[in-house]
Amino acid sequence: MLRFIARRILIAIPTIIIVSVLVFTLQQLLPGDPVLTMAGEERDPQVLAFLREKYRLDDPIPLQYFAWIGQVLQGNLGISLRTDIPVLTLILGKLPVTLELAIFAMIIALAIGIPAGVISAVRKGTAVDYAANVVALSGLSIPNFWLGILLIMLVSVRWQLLPASGFVPPSEDLWLNIKTMIMPAFVLGTGLAASLMRHTRSAMLGVLRSDYIRTARAKGLLSRVIILKHALRNALIPIITLSTLLFGELLAGAVLTEQIFTIPGFGKLVVDAVFNRDYAVVQGVVLCTAVGFIVMNLLADVLYVLVNPRLRHAQ
Amino acid sequence: MTRTQALRSSEDRLHQAQGAPSLLRVENLSVRFDGSPDDVNVVDHVSFSVEKGKTLCIVGESGCGKSVTALALMGLLPTPPARIVAGRALFAGQDLLALPERQRADMRGNQTAMIFQEPMTSLNPVFTVGDQITEGILRHRAISKAAATERALEMLRRVRIPAPEKRMRAYPHELSGGMRQRVMIAMALANEPQLLIADEPTTALDVTIQAQIIALIRQLQAESGMAMILITHDLGVVAEVADEVVVMYAGRVVERGAVDDIFADPQHPYTIGLMGSVPSLGRRQGALTTIPGTVPPAELMPRGCRFSPRCPFADQRCVSDPPPLVEIAPAHDARCWYAPLELHREVLR
Description:
The complex is a heterodimer. Chain A is mainly alpha-helical. Chain A has 14 helices and no strands. In chain A, helix 5 runs antiparallel to helix 6 (about 125-140), helix 7 crosses helix 8 (about 175-210) and helix 12 runs antiparallel to helix 13. Chain B contains 14 helices and 12 strands. Chain B folds into 2 domains: about 5-110 and about 195-280 and about 290-349, Rossmann fold (3-Layer(aba) Sandwich), CATH 3.40.50; about 120-190, no CATH class. The two termini of chain B are about 25 Å apart. The longest helix of chain B is centred in the middle third of the chain and has 18 residues, at about 205-225. The chains are: A mainly alpha, B alpha/beta. The interface of A and B includes residues 307 and 313 of A.
């Protein structure tokens, strides 16, 4: 098992290097000159030249890459061109927010998606199944921003139940923090719940047809035990992988949702940075989320082996 | 007494025999699949009985309704699409088919047990062998987990699995097909059922393993005194283990009787065809006989005798009128207009 994990980590390293190169070069392809943005109204050539020199923007691109990656490996993601705050500080400031939102959204997605998938598989072809499918399809096709705006209109403006937007750190006011998180987490979670539900349903349907379920019934086991132990345990194998990958996507930040609810997470950070041509911040955030996603991938692989005895022993 | 005098509805005889101590008596079991034509049952008025401690073999080619019959008796039919449309199955005086699901579940794996054709896929891949046997014991017996584990271990010993302590912790994929079928047997017999239904338990196994598994099942049967319904298309196995034989074709019983009578004096053309397709060491006379054609699909099922399209003796009556199952000799029934064959030499020549 340890050897398997070690091998997977070794495979992840080249991926991360390629990602870092991609992040860096894509950034170079973006139109617009950061120096002009920084200088603002002032177009004094001397100032521009000074800024180019300071941020080494005149060096050949490969040199710029190595300079950047060398610093990155030392934990220095550079300094925001816009605010002069170290990128790492910015990221570490946003990380808890995005992480909290991602965890809440994932809990909501799992709590809705898996039971709904199991029920609609067990009650296949009944009204319950059709209802669950219609809801899931709506969940998949309703855009997050629209659902978000609708929720703000109803829950916040009309019923005045929850704050419409903003973020309060849990250290300040835990209850208010949860209240501000409920709607955005719900918006993100329901979208994922729909895809989890569809996958759980099809995995359960496949498993319920299998010979070992018939064996379990032949033993006289009760339906509850057959469904929740024998069937779900097998159906969850692909679902665990899917959930891990979905969680990785959540970590990358939810640009639209964070904008709508003005939550200061990764999504908002990266959008603001792109608009301001804040290269260092964009690079840092994209690199972090890419690495985060690769790590979640790695975790998905390891979990897949852990929950699947056939693979566990093959390693 | 000639055979004609013995002609009489076998269903009558079945009813007269109601006082007999049959462990299981199946009467007119009929199963239909949703979507198939209304008048075509995949299992059609099947009747037979199993005596305590005896072995009944159900024989027939793939798709003849053997497995559907077995699954119906166990309450394991996938519903939908399968539906039991008629019949009774009296087990120790109770009609299994009329019991509520909860009571059927209480009997499954307890008084009645079943092993299947596919040992490779019949065990849950994510639980250990020990877990899967223990679970069935705990379901039906009020004993401690430790006692159940001990019982599971004993069952593994009884089915001759080497190093049983180690195997308890093994996952199914770590065992060969033959070993997995032994585990299935251990699981099925753990609660000492009175009736074991074995649905082609050796079909998926290597030939050498087949003989071992059959020998094991017979030995365990002798030790426990349970009755068995063995579904097979291997007539060699039938000759070896059966007391009674039921031959099925396209969902109907075409012949039924004691094993010696069926082998010595087969009366239905289908049974005769089956015997002809078994290689024998005794006489080697040219090619093995085959029965031409295949079992007709439900929508093309003949109105008369279901075997008529493939029967070398079929005439107009066979095509239009279904023959009844009649007793053509004591305790020997056949469903053929020309049975007993001795009376119809001129046709059959």
